[in-house]
Amino acid sequence: MTTAVANVLNPAPVAAEPGLPQADESWLDAIATNLTEWGWLNLDASNRLGPALLAQLREEVEILEKTASMEHAGVGRGTDFTRDRSVRRDRIAWLNGQTPAQQQFFDFLEQVRVGLNQRLFLGLQRFESHYASYQPGDFYRRHLDSFRGRASRVVSMVLYLNEGWLVEDGGELQVFNRENPVEVCGRVLPDAGRVAIFMSEEVPHEVLPAARTRHSIACWFRQDVVPVPLQVG
Ligand code: OGA
Ligand code: MN
Prior knowledge:
Blueprint: H1 2-9, H2 25-38, E1 40-44, H3 46-49, H4 51-66, E2 71-72, E3 91-94, H5 100-120, E4 126-134, E5 140-143, E6 153-160, E7 173-176, E8 184-188, E9 194-199, E10 205-207, E11 214-222
The site of N-oxalylglycine has 9 residues, from β10 and β11.
């Protein structure tokens, strides 16, 4: 998947533009406070990321989609991995940080990772992220992003890329109360620049079916380090 992204987008990495994007101190404070208090929040990050970067990321996912470079997403890991279409229907492509836009976005995610560690002492070691594309009618049923105690995915962040999204377009992220997982405590419109952030092990959520194509980037901040490959020979 990573290879597909690199080939299709034919990257020519350049240095990130100075000054962009910025996860400043007060913004990080607000995220940390809400994560502690409620386990989740949503906010408009379009000023932080900038319209140019949002447009470039949107363009990338549109190219990946047009060139059939996205794969049906799975659920579970190892021998539990399935592509169960009754649970989720989106297609995904992993980001590798190799294009100028992804480089800038990774720079931003790194600022968030460090900022959350400073405030919440979560020991976040790294992040991973993928583009996701939901066609009309696609959904992702209620789930958690991580199982408690695995110390893998700890904080989830979803960035939406869709211009002019309306309530009647559907496709909202429905968030459930971490104390009472059948109680809906919020809905997030997947409009360009909006970001949802939540504790991966605690907050159940689901993607409601949409009436139009829905693009996002899902990111996870993880406590584990990349497994070191065994040396052979
Ligand atoms: C996920 C997820 C939410 C969204 O990919 O695990 O829950 O709004 N995505 O796209
Ligand atoms: Mn999820």
